[in-house]
């Protein structure tokens, strides 16, 4: 067993990068897949309230592929979402408070894919485990978690991160003891959804009794569990995670079987390649969540609405293009019309983004049977572009929407104001609504802003 010492690279401020959940949630017993685990983790960095007050998270399939490193996978992200939704809404999760009290419920009550958005609604019982966490909670790097390739490594990472704050220079190793049966339920080897297991649980049975009642059994022999679960998870965390673990056992009973597993948590010293990969993944997470914030608060101008479904463009795609164009809708229209006159474009959205980001949008030229070209350009330039008043009205709407939705990003902005000696009322008193909106959007984008 060896303690690793290294530099903390991921625990920096930023709601976009850090997953937070209660310790009860971390130790909850439920069976799930690695993809589901990662989607829930992504969701926890962007929770908001829907119109009915339920906690909701939205993920675009395109950014899901980016975050999961599946950009070249053209086959199954979309197809998987339907299967995934059915699975996520069917899981039971068991929560305990350590005092003998427990609760079983569905973690996610609704999952849907509508108009290019995949969204999940969390059970209201999950709220105390996701929002307003002040004590007894676990936080970890979303980027670090998304790099993991094994479901067991993912669950073990969450468990050791729950205790990682207790790892210090004076005490470089912290140990936590679990019963073997409980640990198997925690990491999803045994399924708490099984009716027989729940019957035993509800009558107050032990974890060993629940394990005996389970019909779905894997890695029953300690040697198999050690080799295929613990050793595999440890090897993966040693290679890519900021914290890792060793373990020892406590034996008892007839035959001296393993009854308990002691997890020894330590800080990991990653090599340069692992750190570079971690930083690259962190940038991808930051970019995806930053883009998500812009989509949430940037309305689509009426000039662009007619291009929804044009060559597969979604409203979210148009919002991204509008951001790339500096919120100039006519630049987006120019780029779309120019692209439509170029044959052989394989990645339509990618071509449009590159055109806008690199400033090489061309004036459409009429040829063949195309009627867009010059006439479309003349019609576009003949119209009055968005005025300063329009821009101000848009910024004011952004601010009102941000206040209404009260995302964690907005809460972080309020903390930023407080750190600079301003309450919300004071900030609004010295700035017009459109100035509040403009400054909020700029702050979300990482820009320096003047508060007064």
Secondary-structure class: alpha+beta
**Cα shape:** elongated
**Amino- and carboxy-terminal Cα gap:** 55 Å
CATH architecture of the largest domain: Orthogonal Bundle
What ranges have pLDDT less than 50 throughout 5 or more consecutive residues? 1-15, 363-387
CATH secondary-structure class of the largest domain: Mainly Alpha
Task: Walk me through the structure.
The chain has 452 residues and is α+β, with helices and mostly antiparallel strands. It folds into three domains: 261 residues, Arc Repressor Mutant, subunit A; 84 residues, no CATH class; 56 residues, no CATH class. Helix content is 47%, strand content 15%. It has 20 helices and eleven strands. The strands form four sheets. Strands 2-3-7-6 form a four-stranded antiparallel beta sheet. The chain is elongated. The N terminus is likely disordered.
């Amino acid at each position: 067993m060896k303690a690793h010492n290294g530099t903390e690279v991921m625990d920096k401020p930023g709601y976009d990068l850090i997953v937070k959940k209660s310790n009860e949630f971390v130790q909850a017993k439920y069976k799930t897949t690695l993809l589901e685990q990662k989607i829930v983790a992504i969701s926890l960095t962007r929770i908001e309230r829907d119109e009915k007050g339920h906690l909701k998270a939205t993920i675009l399939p395109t950014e899901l592929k980016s975050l999961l490193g599946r950009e070249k996978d053209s086959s199954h992200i979309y197809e998987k979402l339907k299967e995934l939704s059915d699975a996520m809404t069917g899981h039971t999760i068991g929560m305990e408070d350590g005092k003998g009290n427990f609760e079983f419920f569905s973690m996610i009550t609704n999952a849907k894919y509508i108009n290019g958005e995949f969204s999940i609604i969390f059970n209201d019982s999950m709220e105390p485990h996701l929002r307003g966490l002040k004590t007894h909670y676990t936080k970890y790097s979303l980027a670090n978690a998304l790099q993991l390739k094994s479901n067991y490594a993912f669950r073990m990472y969450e468990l050791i991160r729950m205790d990682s704050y207790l790892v210090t220079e004076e005490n470089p190793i912290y140990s936590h003891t679990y019963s073997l049966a409980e640990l198997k339920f925690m990491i999803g080897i045994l399924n708490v959804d099984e009716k027989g297991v729940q019957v035993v649980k509800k009558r107050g049975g032990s974890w060993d009794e629940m394990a005996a009642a389970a019909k779905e059994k894997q890695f029953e022999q300690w040697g198999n569990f050690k080799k295929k679960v613990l050793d595999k998870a440890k090897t993966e965390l040693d290679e890519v995670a900021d914290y890792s673990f060793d373990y020892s056992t406590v034996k008892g009973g007839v035959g001296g079987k393993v009854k308990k597993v002691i997890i020894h948590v330590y800080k990991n010293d990653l090599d340069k390649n692992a750190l570079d990969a971690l930083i690259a993944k962190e940038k991808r997470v930051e970019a995806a969540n930053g883009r998500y914030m812009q989509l949430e608060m940037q309305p689509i101008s009426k000039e662009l609405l007619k291009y929804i479904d044009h060559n597969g463009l979604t409203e979210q795609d148009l919002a991204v293009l509008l951001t790339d164009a500096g919120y100039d809708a006519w630049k987006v229209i120019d780029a779309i019309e120019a692209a439509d006159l170029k044959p052989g474009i394989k990645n339509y959205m990618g071509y449009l983004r590159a055109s806008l980001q690199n400033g090489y949008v061309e004036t459409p030229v009429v040829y063949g049977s195309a009627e867009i070209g010059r006439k479309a350009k003349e019609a576009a330039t003949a119209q009055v572009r968005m005025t300063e008043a329009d821009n101000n009205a848009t910024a004011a709407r952004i601010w009102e929407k941000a206040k209404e939705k009260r995302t964690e990003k907005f809460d972080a902005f309020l903390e930023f104001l407080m750190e600079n000696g301003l309450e919300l009322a004071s900030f609004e008193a010295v700035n017009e609504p459109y100035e509040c909106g403009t400054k909020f959007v700029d702050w979300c984008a990482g820009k320096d802003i003047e508060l007064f």
